[in-house]
Amino acid sequence: xxxxxxxxxxxxxxxxxxxxxxxxxxxxxxxxxxxxxxxxxxxxxxxxxxxxxxxxxxxxxxxxxxxxxxxxxxxxxxxxxxxxxxxxxxxxxxxxxxxxxxxxxxxxxxxxxxxxxxxxxxxxxxxxxxxxxxxxxxxxxxxxxxxxxxxxxxxxxxxxxxxxxxxxxxxxxxxxxxxxxxxxxxxxxxxxxxxxxxxxxxxxxxxxxxxxxxxxxxxxxxxxxxxxxxxxxxxxxxxxxxxxxxxxxxxxxxxxxxxxxxxxxxxxxxxxxxxxxxxxxxxxxxxxxxxxxxxxxxxxxxxxxxxxxxxxxxxxxxxxxxxxxxxxxxxxxxxxxxxxxxxxxxxxxxxxxxxxxxxxxxxxxxxxxxxxxxxxxxxxxxxxxxxxxxxxxxxxxxxxxxxxxxxxxxxxxxxxxxxxxxxxxxxxxxxxxxxxxxxxxxxxxxxxxxxxxxxxxxxxxxxx
Length: 464
Hints:
By secondary structure, this protein is of the alpha+beta class. It contains eight helices and 21 strands. Helix content is 22%, strand content 49%. The strands form four sheets. It has a 14-stranded antiparallel beta barrel. Strands 1-2-3 form a three-stranded antiparallel β-sheet. Strands 5-6 form a two-stranded antiparallel ribbon. The longest helix is centred in the first third of the chain and has 17 residues, at 103-119. The protein is elongated and about 105 Å long. The two termini are 45 Å apart.
C-alpha cells in the first residue's frame, strides 16, 4: 500500500517523496516536483478519492511553506476527522474561515468545521457553525441544505437552546392607571394616585432564554430537564420621569427564572405530558415570590384536521425570602386547533384560574378566552399571526380601607398582529426579525385598574 513521506520542503516548487514499495534492501523512494497549485489540486483530489493520509501530507507540506494557505487548511478540515482527529480538523476550519475572502469560501469552511465539530460530538458548536454557514450561503439550494443539516443535528443533540430578544416602545410600561383619580363604584370618596401608579411611557427590553437537556428518549417517550430565564427591563421616557420623579428604571424590572423536569409520552392519536418546575420572581430588585408548580396536559387528534388539548396545573407560592406560605393557584385549560384545506390555522383556548390566598386583595377567580389565526399565505416577505383575547377577573373580597361593594371586577381585552419577515433577504444566521403590534385595555369598577397600552415590539425568532 502506498504511503507518503515528506523528504524536503522548498519555496517553489514543493518536493514530495512518495514511497512506492518496500524491498529487502530498504525503502525505495520516488521524488516528484509539484508546484503549489498542482500540490493543492493533488491534495484535494486525494481527499475526494479517500486517500486521506496522502491528502493530509500534501496539505501539511503546503502549510509548512505558507501557514496561511487557505486551500490546505480546507483539506485538513475535511480529512482530519476521517483520520480520527476531528479536533484538529475543527481548528483548521476555524483558521480557514478567518482567511476566507468570499462568501463561497466562508460557506465551505463553515460547513466543514460544523462537520468536524459533529465528529467530536460537540453538536451545539456544530449547530453554531451551520448558522454561520447560512449567513454566507451562495444559493437558495445551499441554504436549504444547511437548514436540513441543522434539523438533523437538532434531532440528535440532547441540548436545545431557544433565545428570544425583543425591544418595544410602550405607552404604559408599568401597568399604571389611565386617570389621576381613583374612583370606586359604590363608595363616596375619591383618591388621588401617585405618579408611579399612573401609566408611564417608555421603552422595554426583554430577554427570554430557554434551555433543555434530553436525559432519556425512546420511540414512545422523552424526558427532559429544562431551565428558563426571563428578564424585562424598563427605560422611562422624559415625560414619565416628570410624572414620577422618584421612580427609577429598576423599580419596574421583572426578572424570573425556573428549572424543572418534564416527561412526554405518545399515546393513541396524541401525546400526554407532565411537568414539575420550581422558580422565583423578582420585582424592583426584590424577591417577590418563589414557587413550585405541577402540571399535566394532553393533546389529541380528534379528526384529520382538528386537534384538541387540555391541561391542569397546581402552583404553590411563597412570599419573598421569608419562606412564608403565600398563594395557591389552580388552573384548568382546554383548546381546539383546526387546519383548513388551504393551510390556514385557527385555534381557540379557554382557561380558568383560581387563586387561593389569605390576602383578600389577592384572592380571585379568573376566566380567559383566546383566539389565534395564521393565514395560509404570507403577505410579501412576512408570515402573519393574529391574536384576539379577553379575560374577566373577580376579587370578591377586595378592599381599599373599606370593602369594595360587590368586590372588584376587571375586564381585559387585547389584540395583536405579528409579522415575521422570514424571507432569506431579511434573516441572519437563521434568525428573522418579528414586528408585533399590540393593544390592551382593562376596565374595572376600581378606576385605579382602568388601564390601556399600545406597543410596537421588535424581536427575532429562529427560522430553522
